[in-house]
Structures are given as C-alpha cells and as structure tokens.
C-alpha cells in the first residue's frame, strides 16, 4: 500500500497559522505584558467608577466552593485570584530566583553585591518616607507597600526604550527586581502572616518531603507535582503564612539540571526519527509505531531542558498575560467617590506610598549603590554609569502588582486600603513616566560611549 500524501492546508488553516504566529511574536515582546497589565487596571478603574460599580464588587464576591467527602472548600472569587492564582505568579518568581542563583546574576557574589545593596537601599528608603508621613502606629503596618518592584512593568518600559539601552543596565534592573521580590517574600512571611499554627507546619513539611521524594524517584512530569504542591499550599494556609508563598518554595525546589538518563535525549530523538522513517507499510501498524516514536520524542525533548527552565517557559505567558492582568483587574478597581482621604489619615497613607515609590526608590538605589562602590564593596558593571543607575532607580519605583498585594495584607480598613491603592497607582504611573522620559534623555545624551 503506498504511503498517503500529506493533505494541503485549507485557507482557514493558513489564516489561523498566520494569526497564531503574530500572537506568539506579541507574547515574546516584553513591553506587551506591561501594556496588558495597564489595560486591565484601567478597565477595573473605569468599571468601579461607572454606574455599574455594584456589579464589579458583586463579581469578586461570587462564592466558589467544592467538596470531596468530608473535606469542603468555600471561598469567594477574590480569594481564588489573590491566594490561588497568585501562587503560580510566585512559582515563576521562585524559579527565576533559583535560576539566577544557579548560573545568573546571583551566582557570583561579587557580581551580585551591587544590585543586592541597591535593592536593600530601595526597600529601606521608601519605608522611611512612608513612616515619616505615617507616625500614627495605626498606619505603620503599610511601611512595606512602596518597597516592591513590578518586574513586568519595569522591564517592559525598559524594552520600550529599545536596544540602545546597554545590556548590563537591563541585567542590573532585572537583578534588583528579583532581589526586591526575595525581600518582599521575606517581609510577607515575617510581618504579614498571622500567628503560626504548628499543625500547619507539619502539613507543609510533608508537602516539601513529598516533592523531594518524587524528585529522588525521578518523576519528570510537572503535572505529577500538583499533589505535593496542593499539600504545601494547604499547610501554609493552615499555618497562617500567606499560602501563595508555596509557589516560591516550589520554585526554589525545582531542579536546575536536566533529568538523569542512561541514554542521552538527543540520541533517543534520533532513534525515534529513524523509526518513523522506517515505519511498516501496513497503515494500522504504522500508526502504532509512529505514536510510540512521537511519545519518545516528546519525553526526550522534555528531558533535554532543566525543569526550572522548561516549566518557567511554559508558565511565563500565562502569568504575564492572564494571571497578572486578572489580579490587576480584581484589585485595581478603586471607587474614587467612596475614598475619603480625610478619614483616619488616609491622605498620609496615599502620600507615603506614592512618594515612597516616586522619590524613595531612586534615592535608596542611588545612595546605597554609591556608598557600596565608594567603600570598595563592588564596582559599576561595564557600560553602566551613574546615569544608568538613575534609570534603574526610577523604573524600580513601579511597584504596581506586588505593592497592591502587600497593601491588601497590610490593611483591613477599607479607607486605608483604598488610599494605599491610589498611592500605588499614582506612584507607579509617575515613576513609569519619569523612567520613560529620563530613559529617552539617557539614550540621547547620557549613555556611556562603547569602547
């Protein structure tokens, strides 16, 4: 029986392929994730301040529940977004940290000293500015809100400035933002978690041991780790620590080396391709042989890449274009008519957050970085001048996603929370515009000449 000829694609297939190619290109443009995030926040603000604002509130309070035997779970949609979906966001952040510690900007302590010290300064200065405006102990709890950096927005705006920005400036900004994330995670765990329940620690520890055991046994599929991930999440939830931090723990536990194998994956792929070429003439046998060979190619392709890289590449588009915009859409909807900045010092909360981001971030990054270089702890990387560090500091003031997340942990009072969110939105927007304007000036006049 002769082999069947491949069927020509229809015009619909061709159009679909072209559209998907365009979508894939857009997804790989770093600035686009920031644009989508901004659109989601704008949509939330418009909806919350329209005549249909009650439906916005009602949407996020929709109950979500399920039960399995004696076990039952019931929360609203807002909880699902902030505590479940954001676990995936923290998972990707944890994997990014793991990769950078293994072979990135954090693998060499001498190289990491500058962004580490600059990040610490960029956390302390905004906190001090916030406290200076909020001496009342009732408002102190928001000190960490202006301390975080939104990686997607900051790197996205840097991408808008084009390839004229030296690569090392981007590396310093990315490293500083990652270290900011580490500090933010530690702050959430230490200062914004409820009383520790020891029984929850046992459950979380069991989830971690299950992950380590499965790694030792050689489980390679990421889906198999959903069960221990759920155990870890439930353990942290019961403990009182914010459960989304389970993502960071899982990210740090993700292997950075390819899976062990007796036969190299590339050799297995070659054998499978040869098997497909020599498939039998009989059509039923051919389909079985081809399916088996394709499964082997899929497994070998998976084994060629370290899990930390493979899983992060798979999840990153979902985090950047789905999870973070949904989070912004669920939490950026502040109704301005209901905000009373005169109540309970809300005005000072807003000013402390906004000025902490706008002024505190660049001030802390510049002062801490300058002192570190001056005292001989480190030196500026090649092609990174103090003008470039100023650009990093301005863009680090874009707090948005993580800042809103911390604000919701810091305040139960609706007035203070709304004021903090407005401060985050204003501070992040101004920092972004200042960073973009200064970046254009930097590209034109201040960028160091390449030697």
Describe this structure in words.
The chain crosses the membrane at residues 26-48, 77-97, 109-131, 143-161, 173-193, 199-218, 315-336, 348-373, 385-410, 422-443. This is Na(+)/H(+) antiporter NhaA. It is a multi-pass membrane protein. This protein is mainly α. The protein folds into two domains: 34-193 and 242-258 and 305-446, Na+/H+ antiporter like domain (Na+/H+ antiporter like fold, Up-down Bundle), CATH 1.20.1530.10; 265-299, no CATH class. It has 17 helices and two strands. Strands 1-2 form a two-stranded antiparallel ribbon. β1 (63-68) and β2 (71-76) form a beta hairpin. α14 runs parallel beside α17 (414-446) and α15 packs antiparallel against α17. It is globular.
Give the strand line-up of the largest sheet.
1-2
- CATH 2nd-level architecture of the largest domain: Up-down Bundle
User: For this structure, what is the CATH class of the largest domain?
Assistant: Mainly Alpha
- Show unreliable segments: none
Main β-sheet: number of strands, strand sense, barrel status? Answer: 2 strands, antiparallel
Mean pLDDT: 83
Oligomer: single chain
Helix content: over 70%
What portion of the residues fall into strands of 2 or more residues? under 5%
Computed over alpha carbons, the radius of gyration is 25 Å
Give the N-terminus to C-terminus distance in angstroms.
67 Å
Helix count from the secondary structure assignment: 17
Number of strands: 2
The CATH homologous superfamily of the largest domain is termed: Na+/H+ antiporter like domain
Supply the number of structural domains.
2
Based on secondary structure, the structural category is: mainly alpha
- CATH fold assignment of the largest domain: Na+/H+ antiporter like fold
Form type: globular
The SSE string, one letter per element, is HHHEEHHHHHHHHHHHHHH
